[in-house]
Specification:
Layout: E1 4-6, E2 22-24, H1 38-56, H2 61-125, H3 132-137, E3 154-163, E4 167-169, H4 182-196, E5 197-206, E6 212-216, H5 219-236, E7 242-247, E8 266-272, E9 275-278, E10 280-281, H6 284-290, H7 292-306, E11 320-326, H8 344-347, E12 349-355, E13 367-372, E14 375-380, E15 387-393, H9 398-408, E16 411-413, H10 429-433, H11 443-446, E17 457-463, E18 468-472, E19 485-488, H12 495-509, E20 515-521, E21 537-542, H13 548-571, H14 578-587, E22 597-603, H15 605-611, H16 615-629, E23 631-637, H17 642-645, E24 654-658, H18 663-670, E25 684-689, E26 693-699, H19 753-762, H20 782-786, E27 789-792, E28 795-798, E29 806-814, E30 819-826, E31 834-837, H21 844-858, E32 864-870, E33 885-890, H22 894-918, H23 923-931, E34 942-948, H24 951-956, H25 958-970, E35 976-982, H26 990-993, E36 998-1001, H27 1014-1018, E37 1027-1029, E38 1035-1038, H28 1052-1065, E39 1097-1102, E40 1108-1111, E41 1120-1123, H29 1130-1144, E42 1150-1155, E43 1170-1174, H30 1177-1194, E44 1215-1220, H31 1223-1226, H32 1244-1247, E45 1249-1255, H33 1260-1263, H34 1267-1274, E46 1278-1281, ...
Parallel strand pairs: 1-16, 2-4, 6-12, 6-13, 7-10, 7-11, 11-12, 19-23, 19-24, 20-21, 20-22, 22-23, 31-35, 31-36, 32-33, 32-34, 34-35, 41-45, 41-46, 42-43, 42-44, 44-45
Antiparallel strand pairs: 3-5, 3-15, 8-9, 13-14, 14-15, 17-18, 17-26, 24-25, 25-26, 27-28, 29-30, 29-38, 37-38, 39-40, 39-50, 46-49, 47-48, 49-50
């Protein structure tokens, strides 16, 4: 069936304004008569009294006669006065009644004239049914009623009496004593009753958003009334304003066959074969499923209005739907709603239920129509007081209705007539582009060079005149709309689809050489995801919400591209703009790189500005210079506030305003509230360009299913084609009437027009320069970054090896230069030391692991030796198997930690000597000499000390802090490097911080503590372990220490151990110098004997240099004070010292005095050396006194000559060595058995007196102040502090007792640093 477009002109017959309420003045309260004043009342009394006095008191006949005369006159005057007052009241009542009746008569004439005028106009506005044929033929009257008209969907059903105006009698001021005049009140009431209702008027039924309407009566009568309502509505209301639907069982279809011809029942969005589907179904539930999409859209918009997202008046702008449910004889069935919280009235749906009895009505009815024969009663139940009208139903037969429906069937409202209604149906994108089949694109034609006016100009939809709406991105000087614009649309307005349309239109009509795209979606990413494979796309950026790092990266990428384009124009010879550049490249400089226009679309830019306010400066910069460098900006958002633009609005020359949440938002975009009043259908909007262009449009729909080529009419006319046109849709005729509504929303599957076009464009040309590279991966392996691996003479090595100590650690990202590559940590610059700072679980240990593994895979053990202090977690232990690793010390192994530091310090000292001996002046020279084999003393040319948990040094290894600081200060110049991991920068002393020239930061607990850039540090997320902020303010991803290409963090320890074993197996040379530690059992034969050391006694092994520790008792040490608790080996040491002295000296040179309360030294001293043995305090006191006597003789007396007073000479006799074991036992209970020695301790060295004394650490905090011990300490005695409780405090300067293995202790010597030694074990 062919269709004919109807132009709807401005309405000629305007509906009358609603009659205002009219107040009839109340009749006055008329009095019955007046009583007069007081003088009138007293006059008769005074006359009677005076006459009585004159006749009785005055005894004179003359006065008696005068009194009688006065009496008569008084009586006559009183009667005259009474009658005159009553007559005046009657005259007054008559006069006011005549005036009020005249007022009523005038009002009757006025109301009668208004009634005649109303009747005449009503006959025109609501014509009888036979006149509808003329209405349809009259273009000025057809479908004349608009949605905003007062009589919209107020439809005639017959003629009769109905309320026409509100007439009331004013409030009366009457009371019981002064009632109103009944006659006048009756006249006013009769007037009010006469003109409150109109007679012989068209009876109209309100159908606009009423909800449920019941039509009750015999079936034929109900059908006649329903037919009358439908034909009246169909003739006076356009299908775009009022949609109709029928729920009619199949057995009653004959009564409704005529309605299928009404265009109001056609659903343009659904097809039934080659024609539009009819909204006709056998039942209300089936009808709801058929029009489900329409009902959901209406419910969704109503919910938005309820939430305040749109003004309540917006509901009046939506189209209405009139549903007829023919359930006569059965209980009414409600039309199912998609949202039970949204009623039919809010959805703009009215349902007419045809019922036999009133008891069959639905639960809530807005209007009730009762028909019986030709009589009808209409009750409007929406107010508290129902409004009732009654009369005669219009006669509308089925043939009459079908004839009218067939007249309307081919008619459609023209586009230009829809000034207040949306365009119907989707806008065909292919037709806009002039493409027959989107699956067969002719890119040679589409991408052909475009003229100056057509360049960057694309269709985006149709306006109300069905003409294409063009978006021109060129600048205004080139008669364009751009280069920058703003797009705002509320949820469901079709904003995302419009952006897709713009992007696809540009890509389909411009080759990548002319146009590049950057698509940014702050939330989600579904909008631009289909465009990822387009050759035009320089970046699709999505899911930025709660991703501060990505937001920062977007800013850097766009800012970098702006700078790059400026530099390209400058390098080409200071070219003015991109147009001149293109002309230069096309004519004289074909060698220049292509510089396509860049179209940047940013969806939800408002939230992007909130996340990073610095974007406004970038947008302003693009707004100022984007024209010249070819950058076009389209900012899009759901909501917009004027303050968010912050001056940017001056650069946004074109505005795309779809339906907004509020009128204020519409004014911000368009300077009018029009966008707020747009219909609640996706795709409708306004295009505004300055003040020169303002057009309403509907955007094309590119995400719809691909349905094949556009159908073109054949050249050959095959004649008319006749098809069956059933009442029910053919495609749904086979559906089960009782089928349940599916619980899952059905979606259209298969390829879309967008997908089909993108698939063809994807491989049609080379891609543009990538502005947005993929973000750094969450995990990547070391061999992926710097591989592949190769096995050769250097062992297993990475192919990505560069210079010495340039270590590949991961992937570095420079978004400003659109560049990603390997990240190398260079330990040869900035002092040679690096600090790795990061909070817990940020990836510090992983970075250090990767560093060590990368060193091993890029250097040989001869080039680099690695030593580790693993003070947190134990993550470095797995690396100990590498041939490059000399040792890894854990936190609990304090001895090995200290030994590792000592080993590195020894290497530093050795290098200082080598530099001095060989005249080396740089580390580069050191490497060269070592590689040439001229420095065999060095196992490795360079050393890397890796410390995981630098903060633990201050807390648990305070004694090593100064040593580490020394290595940091001096090591870099001698090829010794420190890489330290720490929780925060303050873990390093301020004086030492400057030694870490290279710093990398992972996620910090407090980003404000960042020493690189606190703003960038904030963007590091806990969800991205291993993400690093480098010194250059760039981000990098640390590679996992794996060589199997599996980016998995599981079981990393075992993987590292396997890698270490593999690397060791492929290396055949020397390994790094191992860290030597003190043995737990030191045997005597490992120490030098009397021949090598004829005077000094070796007592143990020094941890620092792993060299013998020699006791020089007779020279440097003088005395030895040994402190240690039980089982620490102090008694064994006494025996060792005694045995060593005996081996080196004869009995003439040496004698021992042994004080042994526990008798553990019994037999240790040979008889010839034994000068005395005491085992209790009394014997010790006697022995001490005897020795004191001998010592006293060794002191020079007063007669000695000066030349005989040689230092260290006591005249003769052996040296006396006093061995005291467990001295604390001898001094219990305040005893001082060795008190006789006190006077001789200061001059002991001169008289040959030496003490070797042991005591427990327990109680030493008090015992060190015992006179003998204090005297020995003050004389410069050496001391050995072995195992004990730290709680005793500081027993020597800076030295605390601690638990040590047997034989282990700290040696404190005058003029030397404290050293940890392992004493020799001398078996009994």
């Amino acid at each position: 069936m062919s269709t004919r477009l109807i132009h709807r002109p401005a309405r000629a017959t305007r509906p009358p304004a609603a009659s205002e309420a009219r107040i009839i003045e109340a009749p006055p309260n008329l009095p019955e008569g007046k009583a007069g004043n007081i003088a009138m009342s007293l006059l008769p009394i005074a006359g009677v009294m005076s006459s009585v006095v004159m006749m009785t008191v005055v005894r004179n006949s003359q006065f008696a006669g005068l009194g009688a005369i006065i009496l008569v006159v008084t009586v006559i005057g009183s009667l005259t006065l009474v009658f005159s007052q009553r007559g005046k009241a009657q005259r007054t009542r008559r006069t006011q009644r005549e005036a009020y009746l005249a007022y009523l008569e005038d009002l009757r004439d006025e109301l009668s004239a208004a009634e005649r005028e109303r009747r005449e106009r009503a006959e025109i506005l609501n014509p009888p049914s036979p006149a509808l044929y003329d209405i349809v033929r009259d273009p000025a009257r057809l479908w004349e009623r608009r949605r905003v008209d007062g009589d919209f969907l107020r439809v005639r059903v017959g003629t009769g009496e109905m309320p026409v105006r509100d007439l009331k009698i004013a409030e009366q001021g009457s009371s019981v004593l002064t009632p109103p005049d009944p006659f006048m009140l009756n006249e006013a009431s009769a007037l009010m009753a006469r003109f409150r209702t109109g007679t012989e008027l068209p009876l109209t039924v309100p159908l606009d958003r009423v909800g449920n309407i019941s039509v009750i009566g015999p079936r034929e009568d109900c059908l006649r009334a329903a037919r009358g309502l439908l034909v009246q509505a169909a003739a006076l209301h356009a299908p775009d304003d009022v949609a109709m639907a029928l729920a009619v069982p199949g057995d009653r279809l004959a009564d409704w066959e005529w309605a299928k011809w009404l265009p109001h029942l056609l659903d343009a969005e659904q097809l039934d074969g080659p024609v539009a589907a009819r909204r006709i179904a056998p039942s209300a539930p089936q009808l709801a499923r058929q029009i489900g999409a329409e009902l959901r859209r209406r419910a969704s918009y109503a919910a938005e209005v309820r939430r305040g997202l749109s003004d309540n008046d917006a509901l009046s702008m939506t189209s209405r739907m009139l549903v007829v449910a023919d359930g006569h004889g059965e209980d009414a069935v409600d039309l199912p709603r998609p949202d039970e919280a949204v009623g039919l009235r809010e959805m703009g749906v009215t349902v007419l239920h045809l019922l036999e009895q009133r008891v069959q009505e639905p639960g809530h009815v807005g209007v009730r129509i009762t028909v019986d024969g030709d009589q009808v009663i209409i009750e409007d139940l929406r107010e508290q007081e129902p409004v009732i009208a009654h009369g005669t139903v219009d006669e509308v037969s089925i043939p009459f209705a079908e004839g009218l429906a067939r007249m309307l069937a081919p008619l459609r409202l023209s586009a230009e007539s829809l000034t207040d209604a949306p365009l119907t149906g989707p806008v065909d994108f292919a037709k806009l582009l002039g493409v027959d089949d989107v699956a067969q694109l002719d890119l040679s034609h589409l991408w052909a060079p475009r003229g100056e006016r057509a360049f960057l100009r694309v269709p985006i939809g149709l306006n109300d005149s069905h003409e294409p709406v063009l978006l021109d991105l060129k600048e205004s000087s080139e008669l364009g709309m751009g280069p920058h614009g703003l797009c705002v649309g509320a949820t469901g307005s079709g904003k995302s689809e419009l952006l897709r349309t713009i992007v696809l239109a540009l890509a389909a009509t411009h080759p990548p050489e002319d146009l590049a795209l950057v698509l940014v979606d702050y939330k989600g990413g579904a909008t631009f995801a289909p465009f990822a494979n387009l050759p035009h796309v320089a970046g699709v950026i999505t899911n930025l919400e709660n991703q501060a790092g990505l937001v920062e990266r977007v800013h850097a990428s766009l800012a970098g591209e702006v700078k790059r384009r400026q530099q390209v124009l400058k390098d080409a010879g200071n070219v003015a703009d991109i147009g001149d550049y293109a002309a230069l490249r096309a004519s004289r400089r074909p060698d220049l790189e292509a510089l396509p226009h860049l179209f940047v679309v940013i969806d939800e830019f408002g939230e992007l500005l909130t996340a990073k306010p610095d974007f406004i400066d970038l947008f302003l910069s693009i707004g100022r210079i984007g024209r010249s460098i070819g950058v076009h900006l389209l900012l899009s958002s759901q909501r917009i506030e004027g303050g968010h633009l912050k001056g940017l609005d001056t650069y946004l020359s074109y505005r795309l305003g779809l339906r907004t949440f509020s009128a204020d938002e519409s004014r911000t975009v368009l300077d009018t509230a029009d966008a707020f009043h747009l219909p609640p259908l996706p795709g409708f909007g306004y295009l505004k360009v300055d003040t020169s262009h303002y057009d309403r449009f509907k955007a094309s729909y590119v995400s719809g299913a691909y349905r094949g080529p556009v159908q073109r009419p054949d050249d050959e006319d095959s004649g008319p084609l006749a098809l069956p046109y059933d009442t029910f849709n053919t495609l749904s005729a086979e559906d089960d009437a009782d089928a349940q509504e599916p619980t899952v929303r059905r979606r259209e599957m298969g390829p879309t027009e967008l997908g089909v076009m993108v698939e063809q464009l994807a491989n049609a040309a080379g891609t543009v320069r990538r502005i947005w590279l993929p973000p750094l991966p969450d995990a990547i392996t070391l061999d992926t970054v710097a591989g592949p691996l190769d096995v050769g003479t250097r062992g297993m090595q990475l192919a990505g090896r560069r210079g010495p100590l340039e270590v590949p650690l991961g992937l570095l990202d420079d978004p400003a230069r659109q560049w990603q590559s390997q990240w190398y940590l260079d330990l040869t610059v900035a002092g040679g030391h690096a600090a790795v700072i990061g909070g817990p679980q940020s990836g510090k240990t992983t970075l250090l692991r990767t560093l060590v593994l990368s060193l091993a895979l890029t250097h040989t053990p001869q080039e680099v030796g690695v030593y580790g202090l693993d003070l947190v977690g134990g993550g470095l232990a797995a690396l100990s198997g590498l041939p490059h690793v000399g040792g890894v010390a854990g936190r609990v192994d304090r001895e090995r930690v200290a030994r590792t530091v000592d080993e590195v310090r020894n290497m530093l000292a050795a290098r200082e000597d080598l530099f001095r001996e060989h005249g080396i002046d740089s580390v580069d020279q050191l490497r060269g000499l070592h590689a040439a084999g001229r420095l065999p003393q060095l196992a490795s040319a360079e050393i890397v000390l890796v410390i995981d948990g630098f903060g633990a040094l201050r807390d648990d290894f305070e004694e090593l802090e100064d040593d580490i600081a020394d290595i940091l200060q001096r090591g870099g110049g001698y090829g010794i490097h420190v890489v330290a991991g720490m929780l925060r920068w303050n873990d390093v002393r301020i004086a030492v911080q400057s030694n870490f020239g290279t710093r990398v930061e992972l996620r910090l607990n407090d980003p404000s503590e960042s020493s690189i850039d606190s703003k960038l540090a904030v963007t590091l997320s806990p969800d991205e372990p291993g993400r690093v902020l480098t010194n250059g303010k760039l981000f990098a991803q640390v590679a996992l220490p794996r060589t199997d290409s599996l980016a998995d963090t599981a079981d990393m320890g075992a993987v590292l151990e396997r890698a270490a074993r593999t690397i060791r197996a492929t290396w055949s040379g020397e390994v790094a110098q191992p860290v030597r530690v003190l043995p737990h059992l030191l045997e005597p034969h490992l120490l030098p004997g009397p021949v090598a050391e004829p005077q000094r006694v070796p007592i143990g092994l020094d941890q620092t240099r792993l060299e013998p520790m020699l006791l020089d008792l007779f020279q440097h040490d003088q005395h030895l004070l040994i402190m240690g608790d039980s089982e620490c080996g102090k008694t064994n040491l006494l025996k060792t010292i005694a045995a060593g002295l005996i081996e080196r000296y004869s009995e003439d040179e040496l004698v021992f005095a042994v004080m042994d309360p526990r008798r553990s030294l019994r037999g240790a001293i040979p008889e010839e050396f034994n000068g005395g043995y005491a085992y209790n305090a009394k014997l010790c006191a006697g022995l001490a006194a005897g020795i004191a006597g001998v010592l006293d003789k060794r002191l020079p007396d007063d007669s000695a000559r000066l030349e005989d007073l040689e230092p260290g000479s006591w005249g003769g006799g052996p040296r006396i060595v006093v061995l005291v074991d467990d001295y604390d036992i001898l001094t219990t209970a305040g005893q001082e058995p060795l008190e006789p020695f006190l006077p001789y301790i200061p001059s002991a060295v001169d008289i040959g007196l030496h003490f070797v004394l042991t005591r427990r650490v327990a109680g030493a905090s008090r015992g060190i102040y015992e006179p003998l011990v204090q005297g020995l300490r003050e004389s410069g005695s050496s001391a050995l502090l072995m195992a004990g409780d730290r709680g005793e405090g500081q027993l020597f300067p800076g030295v605390y007792a601690s638990w040590q293995p047997p034989g282990r202790g700290v040696l404190i010597r005058r003029g030397q640093s404290n050293r940890l030694i392992q004493t020799v074990y001398s078996p009994a």
